[in-house]
Task: inverse folding
């Protein structure tokens, strides 16, 4: 099971934003669900970019679990940035 842990943590980089988006968005229509899954996938890509940038800039030689945690942190950060931009857009 330990060999799968980094993969599960990386996968949670999609699942966590998807669940948060589903909880925060109402009403849920099929088109909205598809849109939210695309946004969650983009958050995962943002997590990959965050992890790659951090590992490259800091020249980290970390364990796979640490790298996966960076992906998860980047995905959550991407979601927070998206929500902040959406809130800012509503106030204008």
Result:
């Amino acid at each position: 099971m330990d060999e799968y842990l980094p993969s599960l943590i990386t996968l949670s980089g999609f699942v966590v934003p998807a669940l948060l988006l589903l909880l925060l968005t109402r009403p849920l229509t099929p088109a909205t669900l598809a849109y939210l899954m695309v946004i969650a996938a983009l958050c995962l890509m943002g997590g990959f970019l965050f992890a790659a940038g951090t590992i490259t800039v800091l020249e980290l030689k970390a364990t796979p679990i640490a790298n996966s945690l960076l992906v998860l942190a980047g995905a959550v950060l991407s979601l927070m940035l998206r929500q902040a931009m959406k809130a800012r857009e509503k106030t204008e």
Remarks:
- The CA atoms of residues 55 and 61 lie 8 Å apart.
- The mean pLDDT is 94.
- The longest helix spans residues 30-58.
- The chain has one domain: 2-85.
